[in-house]
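Practice problem: predict the structure.
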Amino acid sequence: MTMNTVTRAILDRSSEPRLRAPAPPKAVLDLALACAARAPDHALLRPWRYLVVEGDGLQHLGDLFAASASADATEAQRDKLRKSPLRAPMVLVAVASPVSHPKVPAHEQAYSCAAATAYLELALQAEGFGAMWRTGAVAESTVVREGLGLSANESIVGFIYTGTVDTRKPAVPRPEVAEFTSNWPG
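Answer:
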């Protein structure tokens, strides 16, 4: 069987944590965001938006991360949070931005944002850049959400660290299809 280039790109996708400059240029970023906008989107609500963080913004994002630490966090823990956005030359904040709709619940709109973000990552990789989708406590933090200017109904789906891959990580074993698929009724 001859494999389509889209299928090959999906099968080759990997999370790349070791990133360096340069970040994707504007033309590549715009192309990747245009791909994100092709995600499944019931009722065409476009329930997502992205914040592009680079340059001095990475330090400001790190300060927000550090400010979100619990009161009993050590200075070393705060410093680690402060430095985390500096692991890449660009961080894209994927924001689920649901709108009220009688047939499309907010959780379905968040799934649409997640699908859009996966397309974004695939497009970045297809254009020669690496990406790492990160979440954690900072994605749930009210301090971070408010600091980024999110409204009360918005949520952070992920922080997409992107840049040029410095060193590729080893391939991750993937499950066989039969491990997660069954026929129903079966």
